[in-house]
Structure formats: structure tokens, C-alpha cells
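Quick start: read one record
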Amino acid sequence: MMTILMLTMPITGCIGGEDDDDEPGAVDNSGCTDPLANNYDSSATTDDGTCTYDTDNNGNNGGSTPTVYSGCMDESATNYNPAATEDDGTCEYDEDETSTDFAGISGFDSSSIECGPTGDISIAGSSTVFPVANLWAEAYQKYCNGIAITLEGGGSGAGAGRVCDNSEKGTAVDIGDMSREWKSSEASVRSDGYTYDCLKGDTSRSAVQISIAADGLSVVVKKGGAAETCISGLPGGGLSVDQARWIWSDYTAAELTASGWDSSALANSDNDDSTHLWSELDASCPASEIKIAGADSESGTYELGCSQLPRVQCGLNRLLRLRLLQGQPRQANCNRN
């Protein structure tokens, strides 16, 4: 009998196929996979969000130049790109019904707006500067992030008082609008001609005056009314300066004459200083009282009206309602403290 002895040994390889080297399964190593990060892990196969970066040198970690991704970086924009590292000026915004189409304003260039520090800005003052200031505030808030602007009227007196933190006029503001010059009782001007030191309120405050616009003054009446019919029928088709002085002034006719007023301005005077009738200007006009109204002494409109008509004693009961615009530089006075 023959016995066959066989030594059993482990055999590696593939039975019924080609022999291949044995390879272990893939290992999932988590870590930072960004080569530009401080803690880049070359062995990491899955980024776990732990990458850290230097905040100086524009994030250049002392290594290679970082990749720049252009796009809109304003989170309030409709096309905000969170991956962008450089704003390319393509941000788009939803327009509400009350917003201004600045792109449609001739000469407007949003790229010329220089945004200052973030925070709150308060403005108050002249009602005639208000429409302009309101547009500026809207544009500045639209194109500059992190800015909140509050805007109030109140008149030039309020603008001068509140920029000086005069509590009699209201709470302090950063910018005071005026449609007149400063009064000597409000502030004193320095030798540079534009810096004013407050004399009321917080006297440690000073303001820088910036002229922003010039406008004109006119008297308005109801279109198609008796006043318009009367005025348009006067010689020259309107009121003369002397006629406006008489309508506006608290002076008697004698006082006006003594100040250089031409009495012939009243072609049909009734010689009664207690009345001011349209018919006194011309017999063709109605014999009705000239009713006038306007801003009070807090307003630059009042101040300018008094200053532009020669030798007129202004009184609130004889104040014409003046239509914007006024013939004096508009002022924006910025607290410099």
C-alpha cells in the first residue's frame, strides 16, 4: 500500500483568476484639506471644517498667493455670493415702491460715494434742505452697509441749535441743516470762515459749515384765483419790490415812506394802515384783505424773507408764505467733535 503524505500550506492568491497584490480598503481621514490654511493636513481625505487662517497679510499665511473669487459680497443684495473674496461691484438689490431710481438721475455715479464708518447718523433742521438731505440719506444707506440715518425737519433754528446740543431746540444731532447764516447769538466763526464755535447748548462743540446748494425765493398764490388775476394784471405782470414790501411789512405807510419806500406802489391806497387790500394795488383788483401765511421765526424762510426786502420790519402776522427755493446758500453744519 502506498501512502501519500501532503504538507498543507496556506496559498495566497486568487483561485480561478489572476494573482494580484493584496490592497487594504481606503481609509477616511478627516482634517483640513485647504493647502492655504495654517493647519493643512496633506493626509486628510475629507475636510472637516477646522481650517484656520491668518487674519493679516490678506490671508496669505506666508505661503502662496490666495485665490481671489470675484462676486457680490453684500449680504443684503439679491445676488450675494458667500464664496466671493473680492467685491466686483455687481451687487443687485430689490427696489421697493418708494425707493429712488438713482441710476436714472443724470450725473449720479454710485462709485463716487465714499462710505465712512458704520453706525448711526442723525440730521435735523431746515425744511427746505430736507428733500435734498432725504435723497442723500437714501443713497448713502443704499450703497453703504451698516449705516442708519434719521432725518428730521424743524427749521433752521433747530438745525443750528441741535448741532450744538442746545436742549431748548431738541436732542443733539450730528448734522444741522440751515437755509440761512448763523446768528451771532448761536455761534462765533473762526478765522477760517467755516468753523463755528457754539455759544448756546454745549459750548465745547464746534461745527463745520458746508454750503451745499443755492436756491431762489418766490411768492406764490393760488392758480386761477383772484390773487393771481390781480397780480398778473398789474403793470409788468407781477409784484414790484415796493409792493411786496408793503404787503409783507408791519410798518405803517409813513414809516415805509421814511425808509425810502415808493408810495406810488399803491395806485389805489385807502390810507388805512389797518388793512391791506388787493384793491389798493390796483382798482381792478377785489377789495378783499390780502391773507398771507408762512413759516415762523425758526425757519430760514422767515429770516431770508426779512433780509431780502430792503428795510422791512417783519412780523409773523404779515409774513408771506414763501415757496422754496430761497436765494441763499443752503448750509449743512457737521458737528466736528
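The helical segments are 130-143, 156-163, 226-232, 241-248, 253-258, 300-308.
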